[in-house]
Amino acid sequence: MGGGGATGFRGSVLGRALWAPVSGRTWREFGYLLLSLPLSTVYFSLAITGLALGAGLLVTFLGVPVLAGALLMCRGFGRIERARARGLLGASTAAPEPVARRTDGVVGAVGALLGSGSAWRHALYAVVHFPWAVFASCLALVLWACAWSLLLYPLWFWIFPAYTDQPGLQLFQNGDYTFYLDSRTEIAQSFLAGLVLTLAVPWVFRALTAVDRLLVAGLLGPSRLAHRVTELESDRGVVVDTAAADLRRIERDLHDGAQARLVALAMGLGLAKEKLAEDPDAAAAMVDEAHGEVKLALQELRDLARGIHPAVLTDRGLDAALSSVAARCTVPVKVAVDLPERPAAAIEGIAYFTVSELLQNISKHSRAGRAGVDVWKSGDRLLIQVTDDGRGGAGAGAGGTGLAGLTERLDAVDGVLVVDSPAGVGTTVTAELPWRTR
To answer: Cα separation of 417 and 404, whole Å?
Structure first.
């Protein structure tokens, strides 16, 4: 009971404010700010020396390798800073893209370094971080020392009258007038000022380290272009895997469904042909049974074709296609589609299969009494919202819902899937897709 109450108080707004001065995060940020000054001094000195020496020697051939060496050294500084930010600030920044060599050998390595945008960003960090580190480190040290000195002043003010000829801490002196913190009122006021300052300092630290986070992420991480290329490569892998899974599903459905029925149908017709002369009634019964199998095979083929790409979507658009899907759902579904025009066929198809998957989840897992589908355009985004009043508790990691795979599919086209599913309340799934016209 006591431990739970302490944890609850510490998690409240007042608890976080009172706990902040002695929290591990505050001490780690303070350590980060103090370390920034000596480290940035080394970075700045070596980077400026290397860059200036390399630039000065460019009139000779020696300037090129010296400049490349300075850039390589700055990349090493960046590795240290990313590790420091990760360990003390919890800011995980990915390593920049590797230096791409066009040719092998020393000449290729030097040329790659000189043409690397990430290497020059690392050099810029070594230069611009120095003045910021001087300001941030000095401010953090002064504020931290003043805050705790004033807060604890009632415990150590006796040192002055006991070991010096001063009645208390001297704040200032103007001619013959000297002001000391020696009375009870002044000691209490210093304690209150120290308390306010101590409670405020952690938030100052967070503001200072927020700038460091931005510098590390902006200058020491991968460029936006490299990040986008990596993202597109990942999305391409998802698309390829999804297409392969769809092909396997189609092959399995054909093999286990229509193909098996057609094989049985061929065998049945063969037996009917053999019995046609000697037992016409039995042959007629077998032909009648084969006719039923043909109908079932055709229905399975139609369902399979609808699963690949429904004709109603191509002919009549999302409104009619989603109404058709809703009609097959096990719970009543209200569909509302408000679009000024039809989006691109690819986006329309993804929207259709997104709603189909979500309605299947509602039929299988939600135990809902009713559901709703809303589709509309907002700016340059196509928005889809599927709601139900079921048991809730759905999520991308929930077993059997397929939401994780659906999230990957939408992410592959710069889409977003958001699931709001509190237990016992119902589920609201909102999907965003980029709007593209035909």
So the answer is: 9
